[in-house]
Amino acid sequence: xxxxxxxxxxxxxxxxxxxxxxxxxxxxxxxxxxxxxxxxxxxxxxxxxxxxxxxxxxxxxxxxxxxxxxxxxxxxxxxxxxxxxxxxxxxxxxxxxxxxxxxxxxxxxxxxxxxxxxxxxxxxxxxxxxx
Length: 131
Hints:
Blueprint: H1 2-10, H2 12-46, E1 57-59, E2 62-64, H3 66-102, H4 114-129
Antiparallel strand pairs: 1-2
Helix pairs in contact: 2-3
């Protein structure tokens, strides 16, 4: 059972997935900081200095923190935009590479065959001998 588990973990797919999750978590922290520390204050300048995280509505004992939802929505849109840009860039690189591989190599103009060269030499020698 331990050997099976070791083989499972050592598979490339599992390792790739683990790396992706770790990078994703780190990237989420960066995007959260970008939104909370840069974008929200910038938006706040235009709409009167509102801090989205403080926005809420209370109904009885329940407190609905819709400002946090707005922050999460902005985070999602930024992450989605960055992923879109990355995927688009990777796809363009792949297409360019595929196009380059699909293009036939520039054909070198076919030169005269060996027989044609020999015939030309023969004709030149005949002309020389006739002089």
